[in-house]
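Structure representation:
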Amino acid sequence: MKLLLLVEKSEISNIYLIKLMAEERTEKIFALCIENKDCDDLEKRKVYQILPDEEALKEGYLRVVDESGEDYLYPE
């Protein structure tokens, strides 16, 4: 399986989105935590999986899978 890694910096925050795309056209999105102000549950310099959630994104939030394997909304 061939994988493509794409890193993008968000234009509105200090979050780097890391997209991992496989040959089957499945896509997983990851974010690197750079600043955890008001988000003590997230660790700086740690990569977290992001789940697609258009409604949350419109409100300025990302749906992040944390250490427990559960997903929660965090400010973008």
Remarks:
- The first strand starts at residue 3 and ends at 9.
- The helical segments are 54-58.
